[in-house]
Design brief:
By secondary structure, the protein is α/β, with parallel strands linked by helices. The protein folds into two domains: 190 residues, Rossmann fold, CATH 3.40.50; 169 residues, Glycogen Phosphorylase B (Rossmann fold, 3-Layer(aba) Sandwich), CATH 3.40.50.2000.
Length: 372
C-alpha cells in the first residue's frame, strides 16, 4: 500500500539549472504533481529556483566520465553513490530520466524492488541509433523498467524498433506540457501583408538546423526579419553565413533567454520558425509559441506533426526553399495568419503541465501497486 505523499526519486546528471528543454520540463513537471514528494539528483552548481522546486535536491559527487574506456568504472561509481542515496531516501518509485544514460543505468542497477519508470527525452534515442554501445545501454535500462514513458507515439515507435519490440507493452505515451496559466497570448496577429518578424529559439547545433531558417531568408520574396535566440556550437558559423548571404540587417542573434523573458518577447513577433531536421522528441518551444498566439512554420517531422498537425505550417525538413515558400505564403495572407493564430491557441490548450503531472503520477501509482 502506497501512502500519500507518493515518494519519487529522479534526477538529471547535469548542472541544476533551466538550461535545456528537459531540465525546464523536469522543474515544471514535479511541481505540477499533487501529493508527491520528490528527491532530485543533479549537479553543482545548483540554481536557487531549482533548489526550491523539489522537496530535496542532492548534488551528485561522482566525477562524470561519459565517454571512452572510463565509462564503465564511472557507471560503477555512480551506481554505488546512487544506491546509498536510495537506501537513505527510500523512494516508492524511481523516475529514470533519459532512457539509457549513465544515471538511468545507476538507477536500474541498484533499484532492488523499487520500481523504475524510465522517461525518454530524445537525445539518448539519437545516440542509440548512432552507436552500438549506446544501444546496448538503452536496451538494458528498458529491460529493467516497469514502464517506459515517451511524449509522442513517433518516439515510442523508434524506441520499439531499437529494442527489437521486446518491450512494446511497457511503452506509454504521456505528452509533455507547459505552464499554460502563465502564458499571456496575443489574440490577433499584426494586420497587413508583407515582411514578417520571425523568431527562432533553441540550441544552435546541427540537429536544430537553424541554418535552414537563415538560408531561407535569402530565398524569400519578402524581406522578412529573423531573430535567433539561443546559444550553441554553431553560433559563429551562423552569423558568418548570414553576413555572406547579405542578411546582416535581416538576421539578429541574441543569447539564450530564461523562459520568463522569452515568453514576454514572443507576442511581439509575427510567427515562430522551427527548424529541427533530425529527431525531435516533442518540442516544448512549439507549444510555448502557440500558447502566445504565434503561427508556427515547422519542419515536417513525425513527432512534430503529431503535436501540431494542421495547426501549423509544415515544410520539408532541412529545405530552405520549402521554408521560404511557407514564410512568403504566410506573409501574403493575413486572414490565414488569423486562422493560424486561433488554431495555435486552441492546440496549445491540449498541453498543460498539470495534465502531464497527473498522468505520470497515476502511472507511477499503478506501477507501484502492480506485482513485480
Amino acid at each position: 500500500m502506497i501512502a500519500d505523499p507518493l515518494n519519487i526519486m529522479t534526477g538529471i546528471n547535469r548542472t541544476s539549472e533551466p538550461s535545456s528543454g528537459s531540465m525546464i520540463l523536469a522543474n515544471d513537471l514535479y511541481r505540477a504533481m499533487s501529493e508527491t514528494r520528490v528527491c532530485f539528483l543533479g549537479r553543482e552548481p545548483v540554481d536557487q529556483a531549482w533548489r526550491e522546486a523539489f522537496d530535496q535536491l542532492i548534488p551528485l559527487s561522482t566525477t562524470k566520465r561519459p565517454q571512452g574506456p572510463a565509462f564503465a568504472p564511472y557507471v560503477d561509481e555512480l551506481t554505488h553513490e546512487v544506491g546509498a542515496l536510495i537506501k537513505q531516501v527510500r523512494p516508492d518509485a524511481l523516475h529514470a530520466q533519459y532512457l539509457g544514460f549513465a544515471l538511468s543505468l545507476a538507477f536500474t542497477r541498484t533499484a532492488g524492488r523499487v520500481p523504475v519508470i524510465s522517461i525518454a527525452h530524445g537525445p539518448e534515442v539519437m545516440a542509440a541509433e548512432r552507436d552500438e554501445r549506446e544501444r546496448e545501454t538503452l536496451a538494458e535500462v528498458a529491460a529493467a523498467s516497469a514502464a517506459i514513458v515517451t511524449p509522442t507515439s513517433a518516439l515510442a515507435k523508434r524506441i520499439d524498433h531499437l529494442t527489437e519490440r521486446r518491450f512494446t507493452d511497457r511503452l506509454t505515451v504521456i505528452p509533455w506540457g507547459i505552464r499554460l496559466s502563465e502564458a499571456r497570448p496575443r489574440d490577433q496577429p499584426r494586420p497587413g501583408r508583407g515582411p514578417l518578424s520571425l523568431v527562432h529559439a533553441g540550441r544552435l547545433d546541427d540537429n536544430k538546423s537553424t541554418i535552414t531558417a537563415v538560408e531561407a531568408l535569402a530565398l524569400t520574396d519578402h524581406p522578412h526579419h529573423l531573430t535567433v535566440i539561443g546559444d550553441g556550437s554553431l553560433r559563429e558559423h551562423l552569423e558568418q553565413r548570414a553576413i555572406k548571404l547579405g542578411l546582416r540587417d535581416r538576421v539578429q542573434f541574441e543569447p539564450f533567454l530564461p523562459r520568463a523573458q522569452l515568453w514576454r518577447r514572443l507576442p511581439s513577433f509575427d510567427a515562430f520558425v522551427f527548424t529541427t531536421s533530425g529527431l525531435e522528441a516533442f518540442g516544448l518551444v512549439l507549444v510555448e509559441a502557440q500558447a502566445h498566439g504565434l503561427p508556427v512554420a515547422y519542419s515536417d517531422l513525425p513527432s512534430v506533426r503529431e503535436i501540431l498537425g494542421a495547426t501549423g505550417v509544415p515544410y520539408s525538413p532541412g529545405d530552405p526553399c520549402s521554408l521560404a515558400a511557407a514564410l512568403d505564403e504566410m506573409g501574403r495572407d493575413f486572414h490565414w495568419r488569423q486562422a493560424l493564430t486561433k488554431a495555435a491557441l486552441k492546440n496549445a490548450r491540449r498541453y498543460d503541465i498539470t495534465t502531464t503531472g497527473s498522468q505520470l503520477r497515476e502511472l507511477t501509482l499503478h506501477t507501484c501497486r502492480s506485482p513485480r
